[in-house]
């Protein structure tokens, strides 16, 4: 892939990170990090769709790379997920920590499957 | 700092983090099987670094460039989506896909805990709400 494809994917990653960051503004209470769960759900659904689209004419290899590795990769995150669990656990909120991981894993996998199924049905 | 300035920092940090992720993935030796070892490593290292950075901020006060480093660079470097699509991208059976994801969560949480321990100098009581605010500030 060309250097431009990598540049587009890096920029897409930055844009995805901006969307993830902005999702946090929706949460005024800041008692449970649901915006991170939401960002990971959206990122998983987007990448599921990109994988289903494959390298077809619509996206092309560079487009799929920018949208999947770039935007979906930047929108989703693992570092906040891990730190959120540490913070909840340190605060003694073990149930919240368990629920957080369960929600991320279950909803994330479901979203990836839904994104894949939706684009497969369209294609 | 205005929200636009924060987004600018996140954009730059996120692009750098994404470029680093692609560079590590490209440099990683090809491995057989369905476990994406490059992403496991990336997520562990990024989680350690974020744990360190957040604990340090808690202990020593806020850090103007945090949006570029935390949500931007480390958020863009690490990724969840690729770990969630293994059933379709690597044709992993459902049980394996869930096991790989849960194992990665366990590794990343352990790394973040270690990073927290390393960055929490001097040891400081944690303010949970402040941490969740910091993720977006």
Keywords, please?
heterodimer, A: 123 residues, mainly alpha, 0% strand, globular, B: 137 residues, 74% helix
Helix content of chain A: over 70%
- Mean pLDDT over the full residue set of chain B: 94
Number of strands of chain A: 0
What proportion of the residues of chain B form beta strands (DSSP E)?
under 5%
Termini separation of chain A comes to 24 Å
| Number of beta strands of chain B | 0
Q: Structural class of chain A, please?
A: mainly alpha
Report the order of strands and helices of chain A: HHHHH
Radius of gyration of chain B, Cα only, in angstroms? 16 Å
Low-confidence stretches of chain B: none
The chain-level mean pLDDT of chain A equals 95
What portion of residues of chain A belong to β-strands?
Answer: under 5%
What is the multimeric organization of the chains shown? heterodimer
What low-confidence regions of chain A span 5 or more consecutive residues with pLDDT below 50? none
**Whole-number radius of gyration of chain A?**
16 Å
Order of helices and strands of chain B: HHHHHHH
Any chance you could write out the topology, listing elements then pairs?
The complex is a heterodimer of chains A (123) and B (137).
Chain A (H helix, E strand, L loop, with lengths): L2 H21 L10 H20 L6 H16 L3 H12 L3 H29 L1
Chain B lengths: L2 H25 L9 H24 L5 H12 L3 H4 L1 H4 L4 H26 L8 H7 L3
Helix pairs in contact in B: 1-3, 2-3, 2-6
